[in-house]
Amino acid sequence: MTDAHSAGAAIACGHEVTADAARQMLEAGGNAFDAIVAAICAACVAEPVLCSLAGGGYLLARRLGGEPWIYDFFVDTPLERRASDEIELHPVHADFGGATQEFHVGLGAVAAPGVVAGLFAIHRDLCRLPLEQLAAPAIRAARQGVVLNDLQAYTFRVVAPICLATPGARAVYGIGNGRLPVEGDCLRQPDLANTLERLVQEGPRVMYRGEFAQQIVALCAGGGGQLTMADLERYTVQRRPALAVDYRNARVLTNPPPSRGGILIAFALKMLDGLAVEERESWLAALAQTMYLTNQARAECDGSLLDPTLLARYRAQLRLRPGCNRGTTHISVVDGAGNVAAASLSNGEGCGHVLPGTGLMLNNMLGEEDLNPGGFQKWPPGTRMASMMAPTLLEREGTVTVLGTGGSNRIRSAILQVLANLIDFHMTPEEAVVAPRIHVEGDLLSLEGGFDVPEQRALETSGLRIHRWQDRNLFFGGVHVVQRQDGFVTAAGDPRRGGVGVVVAQ
User: Fold this and answer.
1) Rounded distance between C-alpha atoms, residue 432 and residue 429, angstroms
2) Which of 4, 6, 46, 221 is the most exposed place for a label (fewest CB within 10 A)?
3) E strand residue ranges, 294-433
4) How many CB atoms lie within 10 A of CB 454?
5) pTM, 2 dp
6) Domains, in order of start, for the chain
7) Residues carrying an active site annotation
8) DSSP for residue 184
């Protein structure tokens, strides 16, 4: 869904309820940061499969005329690891229709959550409106209920084994006799509404030192989890400058390490920067090879991917063979004053356990294979975890574009392709978002439906195994984009993930 206007603010996100919460704040005189806080709260209600107040995320924030900063409120690993035979951790399989992906759930997968701390830090530093006002749309939606659209019902089907894993989860997400909700059902979450009200009234202490913290610790101690009160009490939001990389005539600012997504996007852009843009067919073949080589470089040297020597070696490989060879949501906002905010949020897929009486599905970040490349239970204790999430800002010739996506390890490839569509092929935000995508994992090239015959033939020359998808699918992410160009604002939500684009007069 796309919207455009000659002046004002713009919102792009994954659900109408999320967008409407942001819109209300902008119309009430709030700025982009008020809108993003309201939208985060609402997303945790309207997009519960993709995000939760018990998960983590990032905000890229830039005031007009200032530098972009990242608010890192992603999850922390516990201070101590329990023995593997003492924790609850087991595999489930998410069925995307065209592919399956294995995730690990249970209380042993729960990391220290950051979203609540992030909301309060953003509000303290950047917002104008009172938090009670910002949380009000989410509280109403949780209490009155959200009618599921087809996309939301599909996401429930994808992670059905998690949403039905425990009596507590079935009580929150089940309809009638405990079945999963389908399109047209109304999902009411009164416990979550009460939780939001308590957070507004009592502040983050209730989550990190008070009653909710005590419940989390008790649940983990008795059910095979690893979080202790010390893990929650020590949690802090981290703030760092955005990672900047120049690409052709543009400047890209994104999530720096310890995030993995931003550095991998920057590496791939630098690889492509050394190639001439010719016809799209040959460029797609080079893109597939770039993704393949980026995976190799990541395994070899994740910490210094922008080292010129490493870049030169992998660029050389790309030139030699130009024709060969996880649940998350995102919100983008630009306001009438030019402030920009981009928030990416994740609960993993959820661990299958809901904190009793709160409506909060706890995260399963310690069960995310892509976040644990050394193997489960080998993470360093007391450490901010890495993520593929990469809220991103693109600046070029008087145009500011804000974007990001969900999609597990497809985040980096989805953002990379939308950036290239905007910069190299001069597409509008809507065109850049709806264009078909590819993703390379190992030697497997996933090819989304929508490419024409010459493009498909070019990709077949990559030398990679090909898995063809018939249609567009949320497997390939959901890139939500807002853009301001000479006062003209555009919002493009990705239809793969129920995307909504809204423009607000300010």
Assistant:
1) 5
2) 6
3) 328-334, 340-346, 354-355, 360-361, 392-396, 399-404
4) 13
5) 0.91
6) 45-239+347-371 (no CATH), 241-328+390-492 (3.60.20)
7) 328
8) T
